[in-house]
Every structure is written in C-alpha cells, then in structure tokens.
Design goal:
Aspartate Aminotransferase, domain 1; 2 domains; globular; about 400 residues; Aspartate Aminotransferase, domain 2; binds ligand KET; 13 strands
C-alpha cells in the first residue's frame, strides 16, 4: 500500500548546515569545513572552554542543582545577568526594571519568540532585514508570522557598508516597521557600521518611529571585548527608546548544542515590561513549555562569579584573537602567491566570517578540486581555519580565481 506521505517531495539541504552534511560524506583526508560558523582550535578541533568545564563540575557536585522544570521564561538569575551583559550593569533600563527577558533556545529561538510576540502584539507586521543577511533570518521571521522586506546594506564594489542605500531604504520604510540589525560582526559580510554611522542610523530609526530588533550572536567575538561589541545596542537603549534583543551563547561561550540564549524586550516603563513578560509566557508555553536548564545554569554560574567571569573573558579574547590572526595569515598567503585581486577586505572585515567575493562556480571548484567546504555565497568561517590549513586554502583560492571565471 502507498504511504500517505507518498507525495512529500525531497527538501533541499539547509544552505549553511547542509555544507557540514556534504563535508561529512567526503572521504578525503585533506577536507576542510569552512561552512558553519563554529570555532575550531589551531588543531582544527571543536573546543569546550575550560571555564565551562569548571562550571559544569560545580553543578555536578552541587546537590541542590536539580533537573526540575524551569519557569516558562527560564532561569531568573540567568535572565537578569544576560540583560546586564548586553546592556551594561549600570544601564538605566536594567536599574529601572524596564526589560522583559525570556531564556530561549539560543539565538534562533530568541528571534523566533520575538517574532511571534510581535505578530501578536505589534501593529506593524513588516520586518526589514539587511541584504545580505544570515540565511535563516527570512525563514525565522516568516515562520514567526512577520512579512519580510530587505534594506540595502552591503556594496559589493567597495566591499563596505552601503550607508546611503541603508538610510534611503529605512527612510522609505512603512511607519513603525521592525528593523533587524546585527549587533556586531555582521554575518555574512563582516562589515559593521562605525559608531558615527550607527548614530546616523539611530537618529533615523527614532525619528521614523521604527522598532529596532538586534540579533547579538557574536558579542565578544568581533573585537574580543564584550563591552565594545555591545556598543550599538547600548546606543539605542541610552536614548530611552524601545528595542528587541536576541542573544546567543553558542559562539561566545562555545555552548552551541546547549541551545542557550535570551530574548530581551526593552520597554519605556516597568509596568509595560511586566505586562509584556506576562504575554511572552503565553507565546512560549504552547511552543516548548519552558527552556532547558543545563546551559543556562552554566552561563549563570560563569556570569555570577568574578573569577569564572574573568577566566571566560580571557578565553573569549583568545578565540577572537586567533580568528584575527587567521585573517592576517590568509591575507599574507595570498599576497605571497601574487593572487590577482585586492584581498585587503580579509583583514578589514570583522567577526567569524570573511565574505571573500568568490562566486558560486569558484566555491564549487574549490569543493571539487580541493575538498574545501564553504557556503555558496563565498563566505568562509575564519574560525574553522588554522595555521596548518591556511596554505591549502590559499592554494585553492589562487587556483579558483586564476582558473574559474
Ligand atoms: N544570528 C546570526 C547572525 C547567526 O549567524 C546565527 C548562527 C544565529 C543567529 C543563531 O545561532 P544559535 O546557534 O541559534 O544561537 N549562525 C551560524 C550557524 C547557523 O547557521 O545556525 C552560521 O551562520 O554558520
């Protein structure tokens, strides 16, 4: 008998996570996965931070640490500390209790819960996302009940920010529209506005009554400093206006698979925040009831304890610095090979990724001939590279640009 699902068609692999699927099938010992944004050591291995191992040990040895259900919005300590981490402990919004925070399933889950809340409670259902952006953004927001439009962000000719295009598009946006910003380390371009440009953007957003939604997936990863990477968000909170923030501990604490992050909604008054919080529970309860306990407990331990916190920031800076040194090494290797083109964007871009400018044919050439895996838009994860693999990548890029149009 035919299956009742006989008409289900085969879905394509995810453009980012599917790269890992293809990589895993490749038997070549020379293969290199520069697709997904996941940190690797100089030895090319995934890493669990020492500070995370320590915090986990403390949890294991603590008989009061249980496996009970968390409240619908998660671990209260975690939520408070997480809002402070992004906004600063002295933020007026923190001191005045104007923030509704929900512990969510990492950055993605936070974006999705934020989207569902907006679809229920906000009058304007259009969200503007940068062009280009993280490939999952349009899917998350569409699934979350919003209409997705885009604003100009990146200029391929200068490999920099298209500030004029950005300001024009946001100026023309429907009143009250939601606007998604990458808090730092824009994915995939590695191009962030300068503080002066952020200020121009902020003034336009506020004067047009747009609602900013920050995706902060890389706090600490761009510059090595948690505070510096939070500056954009803090500018928008300092003016007393409202905003949404989705945070992830996947990258900066290496807790990828623990799925720990948070949605914070900064409101103008404490009573509004408290009603918003009550409605967030109604979004979460029918979706996954309440979030997982382990990852949030690790984060809360690290954020609460001065020694652990200091150890974390040192390890985080170590990861950020290694990525920055990979940029220099790759740039030097291409320069040494005389590879045609200007590659200075490799050292100018910020964060986990380099947006190389390689086209889809060159990307597939590198996969077929050199077993190097990256997303088809030419993005490479610098965090997946090491001193040992830089020459192989540089050879592949050199061959791709000289042999494939
Ligand atoms: N926002 C951005 C901008 C982002 O790059 C990612 C992940 C996320 C949110 C979600 O991360 P989470 O694990 O839900 O906290 N980006 C990498 C992994 C992925 O695509 O899932 C990537 O771009 O490779």
């Amino acid at each position: 008998m035919d299956s009742v699902f006989a008409n289900v068609v085969q879905a394509p692999e995810d453009p980012i996570l599917g790269v890992t699927v293809a990589y895993n099938k490749d038997p070549s010992p020379a293969k290199l996965n520069l697709g997904v944004g996941a940190y690797r050591t100089e030895e090319g291995k995934p890493i669990v931070l020492n500070v995370v191992r320590k915090a986990e040990q403390l949890l294991v040895n603590d008989p009061s640490h249980l496996k009970e259900y968390l409240p619908i919005l998660g671990l209260a300590d975690f939520n408070k500390l997480t809002a402070k981490l992004i906004l600063g402990a002295d933020s007026p919004a923190v001191l005045e209790n104007r923030i509704a925070t929900a512990q969510c399933l990492s950055g993605t889950g936070s974006l999705r819960v934020g989207s569902e809340f907006l679809a229920r409670h906000y009058h304007q259902h259009t969200i503007y996302i940068p062009q280009p952006t993280w490939g999952n953004h349009p899917k998350v927001f569409t699934s979350g009940g919003l209409n997705v439009k885009s604003y100009r962000y990146y200029d391929p000719t200068t490999r920099g920010l298209d500030l004029q295009g950005l300001l024009e598009d946001l100026n023309a946006a429907d009143a009250g529209s939601v606007v998604l910003f990458h808090a730092c380390a824009h994915n995939p371009t590695g191009v962030d506005p300068t503080p002066e440009q952020w200020e121009q953007i902020r003034q336009l957003v506020r004067s047009k009554g747009l609602l900013p939604f920050f995706d902060s997936a890389y706090q600490g990863f761009a510059s090595g400093s948690l505070d510096e990477d939070a500056q954009s968000v803090r500018m928008f909170v300092a003016d007393g206006g409202e905003c949404f923030i989705a945070q992830s501990y996947a990258k900066n604490m290496g807790l990828y698979g623990e799925r720990v992050g948070a949605l914070s909604i900064v409101c103008k008054a404490a009573d509004v925040a408290s009603r918003v919080e009550s409605q967030l529970k109604l979004v979460v309860r029918p979706m996954y009831s309440n979030p997982p306990i382990h990852g949030a407990s690790i984060v809360a331990k690290v954020l609460k304890d001065k020694d652990l916190y200091d150890e974390w920031t040192a390890e985080l800076k170590g990861m950020a610095d290694r990525i920055i040194s990979m940029r220099q090494q790759l740039f030097d290797a291409l320069t040494a090979r005389g590879t045609p083109g200007d590659w200075s964007h490799i050292i100018k871009q910020i964060g986990m990724f380099t947006f190389t400018g390689l086209n889809a044919e060159q990307v597939s050439f590198m996969r077929n001939e050199y077993h190097i895996y990256m997303t088809s838009d030419g993005r490479i994860s610098m965090a997946g590279l090491s001193s040992r693999t830089v020459p192989h990548l540089a050879d592949a890029i050199h061959a791709a640009v000289t042999r494939v149009a």
